[in-house]
Design a protein that fits this description.
The complex is a heterodimer of chains A (397) and B (375). Chain A is an alpha+beta fold. Chain A has three domains: 7-89, no CATH class; 124-231, Beta Barrel (Butyryl-CoA Dehydrogenase, subunit A, domain 2); 246-394, Butyryl-CoA Dehydrogenase, subunit A, domain 3, CATH 1.20.140.10. Chain A contains 13 helices and ten strands. In chain A, strands 1-4-5-8 form a four-stranded mixed beta sheet. In chain A, strands 2-3-7-6 form a four-stranded antiparallel beta sheet, with no helix packed on it. In chain A, strands 9-10 form a two-stranded antiparallel sheet. In chain A, helix 10 packs antiparallel against helix 12. The longest helix of chain A has 29 residues, at 279-307. Chain A starts with 6 loop residues before the first helix and ends with a helix. Chain B is α+β, with helices and mostly antiparallel strands. Chain B contains eleven helices and ten strands. In chain B, the strands form three sheets. In chain B, strands 1-4-5-8 form a four-stranded mixed beta sheet, covered by helices on one side. A four-stranded antiparallel beta sheet of chain B has the order 2-3-7-6, with no helix packed on it. In chain B, a hairpin with a 5-residue loop joins strand 6 and strand 7. In chain B, helix 5 packs antiparallel against helix 7 and helix 7 (230-265) runs antiparallel to helix 8 (277-305). Classes of the chains: A alpha+beta (397), B alpha+beta (375). At the A-B interface, strand 9, helix 10, helix 12 and helix 13 of A face strand 6, strand 9, helix 9, helix 10 and helix 11 of B.
Chain lengths: 397, 375
Amino acid sequence: MNLSFSEEDLKFQSEVRSFIKENYPSEIKEKMDNGTPVSKEDIVTWQKILSKKGWFAINWPEEHGGSGWSVTQKFIFQNELAEANTPNIVPFGVSMCAPVIYTFGTEEQKERFLPDIRDNNVWWCQGYSEPGSGSDLASLKTKAEKKGDKYIVNGTKTWTTMAQHADWIFCLVRTDSSGIKQQGISFLLIDMKTPGVEVKPIITIDGSHEVNMVYLDNVEVPAENLIGEEGAGWSIAKFLLAHERTGIGGIPHLKREIRRLRQISEELPLNEGFLKDDQLFMDKLNKVEIDLLSAEFTELRTLASISAGGHPGPESSILKIGGTDLQQSLSDLYVEALGYYAHPFMSEEDLKSNEKRIGPDFAANVMPHYLNYRKVSIYGGSNEVQRNVIAKAVLGL
Amino acid sequence: MDFLISDEQKQLQDLIHQFIQKDYPFDVREKLVKSEDGFSKDFWKTFSQFGLLAMPFSEEDGGYNGGPVDVMIILEAFGTGLIVEPYIPNIVLSGNLVSKLGTKEQKDSILPNLLDGDMQLAFAFSEPQSRFDLNDVTTSAEEDGDGFKLNGFKSVVMNGPAADKLIISARTSGSQLDKNGISLFIVDRDTKGVSLRDYSNIDGSKASELTLENVVLTKEALLGDLGKAFSTIEEVVNLATLAISAEAIGIMQKMNELTLEYTKTREQFGQALSQFQALQHRMVDTFMVHEQTKSLLLMAAAKMNDKSDDAVKSISALKYQVGNAAKLIGEEAIQLHGGMGVTEEMSIGHYFKRLTTIRTIFGNADYHLKKYSSL
């Protein structure tokens, strides 16, 4: 066992660091640093910079443009991205749809879809949840009827993150209702420009527009957009959810956020001193940091076992629960740090304008972030469902 | 020992519940929150007619001689309807300060208008560095000829945008954290040198950042004795802490009810969510936490009513428990609502936002734990 970085790893780290330093656009960095919402264009610009360097689809097989990096290198890379406060990589295309395509798709499908994902020419979103099917995803009702060489799709998808930006959506649809609910689900790719696709915003309690309803009304989809066999959708979905759950914990980002909060505690005035003089607060910060170490090294163990030939299985549920608990605890600590200054609300428009912030510079996003992050224990399979997965698949209950 | 409230108090409670049911449904509240004022001046007049605004004041001040228990009853009921009208800043904080410290002239010019619902007040006590310490005051008031000159900054002043007059704590002597040397001043909002930056809070209430630049006041602006305001400030904020705890407990009750209702109707895996034992146990926990916190509320209200020696300590015990209970109940309610819990569309998220801000107001759980330990 050796958990330290080798000479080569350290060299790699400094290569990544200087690449980011030289190529991360200052106008995007400025927005990220002062909490101004980034636009779709900002995200695409940054992701294209990574694509061009060949550092975007890092987890893919090398034949499709993957990095071929070791687990340690990937870990270093993610840490450096987070440390530099770059926009989060939007996972729907590169980390969710693409693995399905290169694992289950035909050669033709791989050629058709993968390059555009790798090069950031196409924005994907995920059509899984439905109004009646949240945790019980397999009960989904969106129907795809085969008519000749087309599917006619009818139904409603919900909680579709950034669907307002998306060019394509990958959907779980029902192609057969005769058997048990897990059977008869298929994995279908739909062009959002197809007639009958309509996106409606859902505004969340932090005042943001991130998620949407996607209505599918007699949408005609070419049969060639089906990935895998008809009825294979559920096993594909399980494969994908396991992928989704690793990395959903957002560990590298949390490390940066903890460091930032520690910095804030040294600068935020409290009486005649600073917040760091509040021992109860600092105890909580330190507890979160210890929990983060547990989560980080659990994630590293999982990654190591993947690189040794395993694939992410039910243990990714541990990472999801652990990581999202931490994200929520930390978002709450930021709220506590601010005291009354957690309460003033600035809309996204206020933040984009040059209007002066209320309270400390970092304050504006803190409460919205806490509220918005209630979602992390709900999405990607709620933490209750994750516990069911562990109970069943790991403990054998 | 008697935990029952009087018939009159029961009527008061029913009156507010009926008002909420008939006139204050969630969609009405949402429209008010989004309006320019952020609340309804008409409803404020209604509250005056109900006698709510006069409740905690003595008969000679034109009130009904109500005590902490009456304030508790009003605010707990308000919590269930998420009432956004600024009762605590106007009545519990500012009105009480005037009532306890005001000269006859000061009372006459303010209290009748306040109790009739025609005047809005705000109490500016917090500063960016003061956090929850009422004695941490850097805003200064220098004696200036026959009057005073104020300079400084007050943060997140509740009801600042609507306030016709502000009551401002300022230091007339001593150093930053001294309890002695703090004075109160009544200042018209349009006084030269007073500037307010008004804004909305996340919970739908409104507040202001208040900057004071060479604000010249006559000696009549001083409220109470020079340099001796601290103990009254503390007393009034203790009552406000009881009041906001009562509001929180009303909100918790409502959130538990809404969650129970939702889990009975929402089906997943072929049965109502309420049938899953893992979820049942969590709803039992949130139910128990509400009950136990409510017990502390009643205890603290009774001790304040009796002016017990340990009344202040019991307020800290209460607010500590409210802080913890609010986090647990609020977060569980959202989680059990699933995605719907985080949408603007459902009321549960709005209850959650108010409950979350209450965790901080007048001191969070850590602050009151420390205060409890020190008493």
